[in-house]
Amino acid sequence: MAPLVALHGLKVSFAGQPALRGIDLSIAPGEALGLVGESGCGKSVTWLAALGLLPGKARIEGSVTLAGLELIGAPANVLERVRGGRIAMIFQDPASSLNPVHRVGKQICEALRLHRGLTGAAARAEAKRLFDLVGIPDAAQRLDSYPHEFSGGQNQRAMIAMALAGQPELLVADEPTTALDVTIQAQILELLQSLRREFGMALVLVSHDLGVVAETCERVCVMYAGRIVEEAPVAQLFAAPAHPYTRGLLGALPPITGPRRRLAAIPGGVPEPWAMPPGCAFAPRCGERFAACDVGTPADAHPAPGHRAACLRAATPQMADTVMA
Amino acid sequence: MRQDASLLRAEGLVRRYTMRRGVLGRAVDVRAVDGVTLTIERGRTLGLVGESGCGKSTTGRLVLGLEAPDAGHVAFDGKPMPPPDTPAWRSLRAQMQMVFQDPLGALDRRLTISEQVAEPLAIHRIGSTSDHAERVAELLHSVGLRADQGARYPHELSGGQRQRAVLARALATNPAFLVCDEPISALDVSIQAQVMNLLLDAQERLGLGMLFISHDLRAVRQVSHRIAVMYLGRIVEEGEPDAVLQNPAHPYAQALVSAIPQPGKTGRIVLQGDPPSPANRPSGCAFHPRCAAAVPRCAVDAPILKPRAEDGRLVACHVAQGEADTLARAA
Amino acid sequence: MLRFFATRLFRAGITIIMVVTFAFVVLRLSGDPAQIIMGADAPPEAVDAFRIAWGLDQPVWLQYLHYFGAIFSGDLGRSMRDGREAIVLVTERIPATLALTLPALAIKLCLGIPAGIYAALHRNAPIDRVLMIMAVAGFTVPSFVLGLILVLVFAVQLGWLPSGGQESWRHAILPVVTLGIGGAAVLARFTRSAMLEVLGQPYIRTASAKGVSWRDVVWGHALPNAAIPTVTIVGFMVGSLIAGAVVVESVFSWPGVGRLLVVAVANRDLAVVQCILLLVAMTMVTANLVVDLLYGVLDPRLRSAPRGAGAG
Fold it and tell me: Alpha-carbon distance A204 to A218, whole Å?
């Protein structure tokens, strides 16, 4: 099946500092993909670059295609139709992601007008329907509320309603639950799941929380220092992580069950963009490095079908079963 | 439990704030903390879990004596906590310290890390000035910072390094008690693990009693010997971490545990609605409007935190205690 | 709502009283009006008689009380120079001042705000730097220097425009421009910062991500938010419509309230000075009150308390 969105060799740099160093990724229609990584890995920049939302001084190379339509370098009017209409994006802090001086209903109707040509009473009726869909009670009254009158969870629901207004084929959710309480997080993730099922919408969930991504997504990509270091179906990633960074992330997560153990914390920190190691970016922190790891960025190894890892260690099968505890 | 094993005991803490609703509205009493009793033992950690508005941060401040409670009292090492900003209270600071969520905000932008780590030593006049340099080096090493990082300013370090610096400063006076309020939430996952390890190491080395406040159940389980779950200013359940996490008794604790994201999660309890604000406290049990197990009694009587008959688990719930009315369940 | 007004009005009243009292005291401490008005070589008996006639021989506090009492019956005193009522003297000059300050306000708004917005939208581009340098020049150069330079160039050298007086509309051009440039410069810088602050907010990114065109993002999403802090500055400018032209009116011999103030102070013409100051204070507090109300209109967050403000 042809991919809905395909990224090839996407590179982004700011003032000469690389933020993304070559991303290759594809998303099938209706698929749920998780993008996991820590701060600075470029997981948000990837999608901001794809939609042309980065500031003008960012240098972007590579290709992002949406069902064959090239987005990088596309003219403004093409991008404006895609944003919200075919690819929608929701962000981390819902309270500050909505315009504080406009009523929420007006902000939703703006999206409806732009992408579905609805105005007036028809738009308002549809906005109400969207509010009902995302589970905001008292929808008719809430349309006239301002964002500061909503709680964090309700604001995020309103953002989702606004994102759905354009009936997008892909929803990119950038840390949608990080600023929310854990029980509200559960509500929002459930909502995203049910909306996906109902509309057959593809979903990209960007998060630093492996657990969140694991639950909601079918496939997961792990990013480190501007590259994808591992990609696999969810179950496979958790059962048999091939890249030492992924193993490190899993080891750093405190277990909910089982004996309490000292956490296997990854030593050191993420390299700064101006001090990127010559070879594999993770090598300085990796407990399993070879000498060759410092020479060039490793090519993708394929430990299993649908599972790739940019790691020389993963490419050597006899080492693949030394999974770090 | 022997009396002298308890490092800190807080009983019936109440803290009220007056909020004005709207620019011109009436004043409303908000009970951020509404009757909290807890005990922290030497060398052990109590984890305090809850979501926004539950009063856990306020509890942390009350326990340290940063604010005086409107009711109830705090006893540290058997003696009552002096009122805030009195000389007696200030000298107690050497024995109790706090680590906050935002390490950048907790550090002074204009002083180097070493200067800040040395500050408590100067304030409490511990050792002579010449001893300080050595002690600072020792503290930096114990949290995994290098000497050259000590000479840097906070904005030159990463989030994880700053939090280590905050920890080094907190440990400078060899305190007996440490309150950590969301110390790792702002950090990356791998750095969170490093800091949690550090806290556990420090506890073991120094016999620290700790109050670990967080919304992250995983982290709380990792570092705590006992967990208390708070909702809207009250403790609703308390017990051993594994007991509470595997078999939560209170419906809110059940929802909280069920909400933890995990691979392959099914059958999650999803709570309806938002956590209420403390200004809008429901009658009776504060949780009853969102509780699937609520019975009519729950809207009337606020349940008391007491041991459950079958296993002694402390829980504040009529249904969990088996004391619900025999009337039909609330819808 | 009532409480809001009541507190504001109360504070405004206190402000006005403080301004008038201050003027009252300082003027009387700074020289003897009788001597100055009568002249240096007037006979002492004439000066004394003058003093008694104007009540200047009484203790200051008594004069103060009389003055306040008189205000409440509408009598703001008389000019000691020509005996006419102070209030009449001042109000007959207001139109002349407004003929300068209103067009100048228009210049400030129509030049300053667009310049600031444009600079913010092209941040760090050459045009931004040029505009900001011009803005700094505009508000650092004192108005009288600017006025005199303009007179030198346009009146003396080029002879295009008259240098002073109020005979025709062409006489208003240079003073209006002088007044307008300084304010436009301040507004440009301020508007630029307000816009930059707003453009960096997450909701701007959300609007773009929604597919809103950049033009609509700026006009519909950014400007309404940037207007909020800008209104403060504009409020000050409106508040100084009456007496903000003191220096310019003097430089261009324009017979407005500002010029009257300068002359009255020099002459210690107490009632006139106090009347003008009273008027200025009232204009300012009214402008501030209107600005406060406008905040409520422009910023919905000020109208109702935010939800879920928990103590965590």
Answer: 10
